[in-house]
Amino acid sequence: MYEATLRIDHQSPYADVTLGKDVHVEMWCNQYCDLVYVSGSDIETPVETFDDTVGIQEIVYKDEEAVLITDSCLLDYRDNLLEGYLQPHQCLSLPPLTYSDVALFARVLALTEEQLSGVYHSISDSHRVTVEAKREIRSIAPDIPILMLDSALPTLSDGQQRALSLAVEMGYYEIPRGSTTGEIADEMGVSRRTFEEHLRRAENKIIKNLLRYFLT
Prior knowledge:
alpha+beta, eight-stranded antiparallel sheet, 9 helices
C-alpha cells in the first residue's frame, strides 16, 4: 500500500476561513454532520462562518482551540471535492481532512503507486496540487494506527513555532542550558512571560499529541 499527503488549493467554508489568518481546521465527516477542530489565535471568525453555513449543534472552547459538531455535513453543502477523484481510482482518504492556508490537506491511501498517481493527475487537471509527503506501507501491527509524522504533530500558532524554534536554536534544551527564557524572549522581541506562555503551550500540545499515539 501507499500513502500520500496532498495539498489541494481549494475553496470551501472550511478552507476560506484560513485565508490570511492564524487558523487551522481539521474535519471528520460521517455523512450527516461533521466533527470539527479549530485552533489558532483567531478562531471566532471561522466559528461564526461555520454557524452561518452548516450550523453548529454543540461547541466546546479551550484556550486557542474549539471543538464543534455541525448541524449538517459540509459534503451536502458544496464540498465533495475529494471523493469524486478517489472513487474512480479505488483510493481512500484517511481522516481528518485538514484545512490551512486556503488549501485542503488530505491523506490518501492506495493499493498501488499507479492508483495514487491517477488520483494526483485527476485532481491536477482542475486544481493546483502538490505532494507534501509520500511513503510505502509495507506492514502494520494490529494495534498501531497508520500514521505519518505530520499527522501526529499538532498545529502550533506562529508565536508558538517561533518560541520553540528559538529555544532549540539557542540551546535551551541542552544540558546545561545554553540560554535563559529571558534571553530568548529578548531575541524574540517579547516579554519573558509571553515567551514562556508560547513555549509552554507548544510543549503541551506536542507532548499530548505524541502520547496519544505512543503510550496507548
